[in-house]
Structures are given as structure tokens and as C-alpha cells.
Amino acid sequence: MTRIRLTAQERHAQLVAAAVTAFARGGYAGTTTDQVARIAGVSQPYVIRIFGTKQELFLATMWHASDRVQRIWREAAAVDPTLPGLGKAFKALLAERDLLVVLLHAFTTGSDPGLGDAVRQCYGDMFMLVRELTGATAEQARDFFASGMLITVLGAMRVLGPDAVPPQPWMTDLLGTLPYDQE
């Protein structure tokens, strides 16, 4: 069996992809660097050598997820620079459930002294980008984020997305209130 040698950038991306899977499953507190290493097929000391700490790995994973969301919004704004345009584009991220779950986990760590500043910066960057791309007021962006968080939670619970569970009556009622078509 021939071993393929990855560049440092490719190895970093491989570890972040493994971390997305691991942190989506267990959150920050419930995930170890050993779990990430096993998913990536490398040793735990290698993960530490690349990232230094679990905290730095988690932050790299959070920024990766945030960058993906922001990239989707920028692409959408090039075609339709409105809140509904960005909202429709966000729907595509339901297929990347683990990314959204990682962001949910990240936002819950906002009070952690070692993570909070970065988590708040991440959320703030996303908020300001939406305002910049759409010209939305603070209130309009707040409402957009409120709906987005609901959609993210529903995606995490598999109420929305390609792997959605069979709908229950409450789900149908709630989904009917969302600001864009779920079909």
C-alpha cells in the first residue's frame, strides 16, 4: 500500500474536516483530540502538534464553519443582495448539517473565558456581513438571525434538511411560519 503525502495545508484541512464531524457529535466539552485524530486517521500527538490545544482546534473548526456560511452569503448576494436572497442560500447549508451544529456548539461556549471573545467575534462578523451585503437595519438583521437560528436548530434536530424525520403536526405548523419555502 502506497502512502500519499499531504501538504501541510491539506493535512490542516483534513483535521478540520474530522473536527467538524467530532465536534458536531460531542460539542466542545464532549470531544477529545483523540476522537478527532481517529476520525482523521492520524495520531493524537499529531493533532496537538498542528493545533497546539483542543481549544485552538475548536476555534479553527468554528472559523471554518463560519467562513462557509459567509461564503454562501457572499455568493448569494452577488445574485440577490436581499435578506430573502441570503435566506434562500442558507437553505443549502442544511445539507451540511455538521457545520451548522458546530456553530451551535460554538455559540454555547460564548461564556467560556478561553473561547468567548472569538465566538462573539465570529457571530458579530456574520451579523455585520449580513448588514453590509443587504443594507439591512440592525432590527432587520436581528430578525434574519433569529429566523436563521431557528432554522439551524430545526436542521440540527433533523426537522429540516435532506435527512429530515417524518413531520409531526407541530413541525408542519412551525415550518409554515419560516421566511422561505422549505420544499
Automatic annotation (TrEMBL):
| Alphabetical list of SUPFAM superfamilies matching this protein | Homeodomain-like
Which keywords, in A-to-Z order, does the entry hold? Answer: DNA-binding
> Which Pfam family, just one, is annotated for this protein?
TetR_N
Ranges for domain HTH tetR-type come to 9-69
InterPro entries the record matches: Homeodomain-like_sf, HTH-type_TetR-like_transc_reg, HTH_TetR
Q: Which residues form a coiled coil?
A: none
GO molecular function annotation: DNA-binding transcription factor activity; transcription cis-regulatory region binding
* DNA-binding region, residues: 32-51
Q: What is this protein called?
A: AcrR family transcriptional regulator
Question: Which classification does the entry list for the species?
Answer: Bacteria, Bacillati, Actinomycetota, Actinomycetes, Micromonosporales
